[in-house]
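I'm stuck. Protein, please.
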Amino acid sequence: MTADTSHTSVQDALRDAAWISPAETGSTEAGNRPAYWLRGSFTWPPGTRDAGSSANERAVVHATAHGIYELFVNGTRVGNDELTPGFTSYRKRLQVQRWDITDLLVRGENVVAALLSDGWFRGRHGFERRADGFGTETAFLASVTNATATQTFLATSQSWLCRESHLTRADLMDGQTTDFRRLDPAWLNPSGSAGQTRTTADGWVPVVRPAGPLHEDRTRLVLPVSPPARRIGEIRPVRMTAPAPGITVVDFGQNINGWVRLGNLGPEGTRTVLRHGEVLDTAGLVSLENIRAFNFATKTPLPAGQVDEVVSAGRPDDAFEPRHTTHGFRYVQVEGRSGTLAAEDITAVVVHTPLDRTGWFGCSDPRLNALHDAISWSFRGNACDVPTDCPQRERSGFTGDWQVFVDTAALLFDVAAFSDKWLRDLAADQWPDGRVPTVVPNPAGNGPSGNAFEDMAAGSAGWGDAAVLVPWSLWRAYGDRQALARAFPSMHGWVDYAAAAAAGGRHPERSGRRPAPLAHERFLWDTGFHFGEWLEPDSPPNPDPSRDHGIVATAYLFRSAGVLARAAEVLEDAAAAAKYAALARQVLAAWRTEYLDGNGILREESQGHYVRALAFGLVPDELAPQTAARLVELIRANGNRLGTGFLATGLLLPVLADHGYADVAYDLLLSAGTPSWLGMLEAGATTMWEWWDGVTEQGARGSLNHYSKGAVGSFLYTHLAGIRLPADPAEAEAAYRRLAIAPQPGGGITSASAAVVTPRGRISVAWTLEHGRFTLGVDLPNGVEATVKLPDGSTRLVTGGSHQFSAWNQPVSSLLI
């Protein structure tokens, strides 16, 4: 089914439905608003009164909301999707869910009810936890039709009723409070109701009809292109302690995104509080200090949220499972229960988008296997409908995070549809001048929000470049030409913006040093706000708009212009290919003139700058050896420790290995302490940290589930195991049609294996190293061509099938000395 056909069918199915909102009688304070029931009923079966209907008719519901909703038919929850309708750029793209509910219907009256809460639409969200990002009122839209949507059996209208629910507080970040004493199952059961004749004496009141352009625009209603968030798995406690009277702390042994299910709620009126966190304090209590954010203008700390409450009705079968919030946590502190909490009473529920696993890795060093697992868990915790930066403090789709991690993600899981959905939202929220907001979906939409920092940060290099580099990464992995074409307008919109920003101004410091601009400066992007390398070790974050990040921003302008030119070639747009290739050449020349001397040394030195220069091809081939050697000097001078931050960390080890310093790459990969990946694991990490020193003897800081530094996972596949895609593949090479198998053993590792499920089929590699002899096995699907490069320097060209190779683990020339 084409996108247009799907789009039309959604509109047809909802043609008789009107937007409805609850009459809000509870708290209107952000973070403390209750969820509401909305309820309608209809008679089934439709009979033969209307032409085209029959007793064998199917009943299909289409539903969506401003907020998040759960749908019930006769008291039974519909489907297994969570957090519907999902997170999108609601002003332009609102997803509609579709279910066949025939098997839930009974003869006679049937009740359809929605439990509606704030969700992303108007709940507290983002670093500053602002509410009402997309609107000030929740709303619901639904209809029940036959399978062809030619007959409507029930549609949302002013005949529906509403009331406050037993969810007395429901916020996606702050948490959920459920009072089971306020839940009457008869509300949802036709046998215990009087249909739509309920009165205000029962607590039911007529719904409200919202008005405004957003409700009138049906063109934004779309079917999902990516699977919804779901309950993926469950984790049992690994340890339970009682650090204080009336308090039990539960350790699930793994940092996750989701919630807990709590049973045995106690006698009626028992109030239990659950605090969710990633770390314990010195007293053994759950600490939330590391995930507290602050107001940018006032620096006032903000509440951390992640607190749930449940009040028991005394019914033995009741279980608390807060589906209108999510938390990032490993530990839960349970307060207020009478008696001992048993391990069987509490379970952690893992919630995220159900992505098919495509990558497997293992090697002789168990520390790297643990690192691989932590990277995978970190991504899973941040793949909750959109690629987020962290599942606790912000839960925002930061563009820079996905830009640096998408290549690793595409090795671990099938992220094609997941990313396609997000890129559609990026295009929807892209500003008219082409700049890209820092987070997508963006509550402010495709323009300024009025928040000074947010508006200043929109268009930061390395973040906005996600508009170009993410589609290209997906092209490399999946080869979907249609998806690349869909992203192309957004891609060139970003590059046009960045090029115009470069040509439109000079940094004041440069103007002071050189009043008369040189010709190349119109291709230097040294103005505007940029995050820069961000969170380098021992470098406090400094979001200073006056700082000159030209060496970073110009590098990204070159990379994105070049990628855009190659995308245009794939799409057979010769004019665009020529235009952006010329731009890339001009930007490259400007970068070299300004930042590189004739000996391959940068005029602004840092590990990140050198890594980027080599990874992006900014250094001429003849100078690359000197540049790489200088990078190694900086590493050695830093005590053999990495000094990269957000943007360059994932590129660091491949750059070193590709320029003849695989030994240095393995030294860094296998180093301990701070900063290092294994140092995180030694300190107890089960996911990647935002800060290299996220947990020290002084305590914890920042998110302990931030996947960006986990971009090192690519190295495990591409260099340690050796499965490598071309950097800039043509159509005949993309999606693993052609690849290289080039393992680079090192670090004392004696065996490694990896497999990747590709659009062509499963590719697997396994090697062992014994007494200097390297043995390699490769399995390729039919139609795949691989160049196998062995450690002795020899190469083989192979196609589909199983292949075995053996060689010495050193270049042939060294054996002759």
